[in-house]
Model the fold of this input.
Amino acid sequence: MGQAEKIRVLVVDDIAETRENLRKLLSFAPDIEVVGTAATGEEGVKLAQELTPHVVIMDINLPGMDGITATEQIVREVPTTQIIILSVQGETGYMRRAMAAGARDFLVKPPSGDELMATIRRVYEIGQAQAARMAPIPTTVVPGVAGHPAVGRQGQLVVVFSPKGGAGCTTIAVNLAVALQTRLGASQRVAIMDGSFQFGDVGVMLNLQASRSIADLAVRVEELDADLLTSVLIPHPSGVKALLAPPHPEAADAVIGADGGMVEGSRRIGAILDGLLREFDIVVVDTWSLLNELTLTFLDRADLILLVVTPLIPDIKDARHFLELADRLGYPREKVGLVINHSDRKTGLRLDQIERALIPALAHIPYDERAGIVAANRGLPIAVEEASRPIGQAFVHLAAGVLERLSQFRKAQEEEEEVSVEVSRRLLGRALGI
Ligand SMILES: Nc1ncnc2c1ncn2[C@@H]1O[C@H](COP(=O)(O)OP(=O)(O)OP(=O)(O)O)[C@@H](O)[C@H]1O
Ligand SMILES: [Mg+2]
Done:
């Protein structure tokens, strides 16, 4: 988020006291500014047009034009503005309509200050990411790599994400990459990218020295080609090539962009991903648990998102929110695969309950204290060290599940392409009168 730019918020509620309370709550957030308030839907739409706020907090029950209709109009007329619906408990019927109208999120009255601020920041980030995606990337940024046409990428992207820190993303990303490479053999190329620029530990887990890192690439995205990639990626004995995080957290600025605005960062990461996907068959990205623009750049481009949870209520709750967000972002359901880590821990939650609350799991990874410690201390991935233990087998199983999902996805894509080729052939035929 830009240091100078505040998140500009418009509050629409017919009750003066609610407007005032929201304003008061938000006055404690140094990065948020209430730029206007409106008491009716009509006034809300008018002010949204005039002020183009980043975020509108919209009451659902308004006299005259209701909150849903006002949402629809704002989404249509001020598409950069994100809307959070505010409602009283039990209005879930409206809620679905509000989401269909284009609202980004909802809050139940009265929201706590923390909840309100967190939701505003989250939808603001979504809006920024949307803007970054819509901004055209200059073609010089992604030139064709020698031997490969610039059009179309060959590789497939797997992004490992968890809304909760410490759930095991890095462990899973690293071991998945190694298990995939082992299974596919030398004819296929697998890369891992540390998407956790500030405190990434893919290098530590793979026992690799981060002598070269993404910081070396980020400043040269304009000249990104196969040679440059090869010179920056670090080979692991398994055959996997790793694009590591910078050795010092400060160097992450080189990736994110000097303005800290992340729009530039998104563009750079997009270009780096394009480069990797031209050179590798599968790219696995380890992310951090913060859902910001950079993370969204990875998630948007993913063929498969592995959502990592442990069998704990807060994890499940956050994962549910993530699945809802994925729906709102228009991701197809097959794009998300659930991985339950520490699956054998006795937490009072059964795996079938978790899967019913979320989605069926692609893999269960048991807790293995010894393997975890060996991996952490020796820098050797479990998939290599502990292939005969249940945890090693779980990674083999995960790799198989991922490959199956990726091949289904590729098949569906090819069928889609065939259909569109057939359609254009027919249209051309008709145009030519044959
Ligand atoms: N299935 C497992 N069995 C034993 N130890 C595990 C398992 N999964 C993860 N660990 C250990 O738990 C710790 C946290 O895992 P990891 O670093 O992969 O999580 P993360 O989600 O990447 O965390 P962060 O949010 O810090 O990036 C590590 O020490 C790792 O070795
Ligand atoms: Mg991690």
